Sequence to fold (348 residues):
Amino acid sequence: MMPIINNPWNGSVMRAIVHDQHGEARRVLRLSEQPSPPAPAAGQVRVRVLSRPVHPGDLAGVEGFPGAPRGRFATPRIPGLEGMGVVETVGEGVRDLRPGQRVAFFPVPAAWSELLTAPSGLVVPVPEGVSDETAALMLVNPITLLTLLRAVEDAQHGQAGPVVQTAAGSSVGKLVCAAALEHGTPLVNLVRSATGAQTLRRRFPGLPTISTADTGWRTQVRDATGGRGARVVLDAVGGSLTGELAGLLDDGGTLITYGQLGSGSTPLESLALTPRALTVRGVSIEQWMARTPEERAEDVAFAARLASTAPELFEAAAGYDLADFAKAVDHARRPGRSGTVLLTSPAS
Ligand SMILES: NC(=O)c1ccc[n+]([C@@H]2O[C@H](COP(=O)([O-])OP(=O)(O)OC[C@H]3O[C@@H](n4cnc5c(N)ncnc54)[C@H](OP(=O)(O)O)[C@@H]3O)[C@@H](O)[C@H]2O)c1
Fold:
């Protein structure tokens, strides 16, 4: 057995999904037996993981991010950074977590395994009444939302204006919709199909939703943004759509890119950045760890409150046992899916 968990082996094994090389997830992922992590060291906890999401970013990490820092996704590796489970044992000095407690964690590598050891500071109790499914999705998407809202605020320079978002029917997109309604932000949603537009309009009737499959979508966006264009575009699609999105911005506007669901490319020269004083900015949840522990604790408290008060914003599409990871990957890739696919494993 080739151990991927870098810990002295205590003789017991667990199941984990691993990949030995980057490539199409269905092809390179495999179920394996790995040495279980040993008893936690001081300040650590050992968690039996019950449920973890298959995020688009997890699949991109398996495929290999273009331009990812060297070693960041070195193989062999076990994917996953988020999940929920039950504390098995706590290391010396851990006061705020106890065995048997339900917890969520992020960012903890190797979440697609049955057991993991994590620094206690990255593990948070699940509020009472929050289901396991919701808890498995409790941290990444709300923290992404907060990261995006901060980037939008920076880009507005105190002059609020219309915001356009792509992939608006995604789990993150729906959180952005709910936040826009709460804060009175003039948000225009873009989705890629008429069916997706219909579904999102039913869910958020107060927000204009436009399908890029309509020939007149650019004019519809211009009308919905008051004729001048958007102050900010929040984009998770990228690729060949980037040029079109830059064209939707008002002069001085900002394109915030935070995902790459699309394909193709757009030459930088075609964006007219200089004459129109446009800004293009990348935003990633990876920058979240640079916030102070107090700031991160506030963000986690926001996520936990949201999970308690608005569980409908943490929709799970389906759950598959780790052994059925191929079905889970297929489901996660299915167009028109609503909610996030979970990989599950038993409590013992
Ligand atoms: N930067 C960060 O730190 C960070 C953190 C979290 C998430 N993200 C990114 O945020 C995005 C949304 O994540 P999520 O988990 O919320 O997604 P999700 O729930 O899995 O939903 C994906 C959505 O994207 C749409 N979509 C897929 N391919 C598309 C394409 N080529 N063109 C237009 N729309 C497309 C789908 O539309 P259909 O309904 O039509 O299938 C679906 O609504 C992803 O790009 C993810 O990588 C980034």
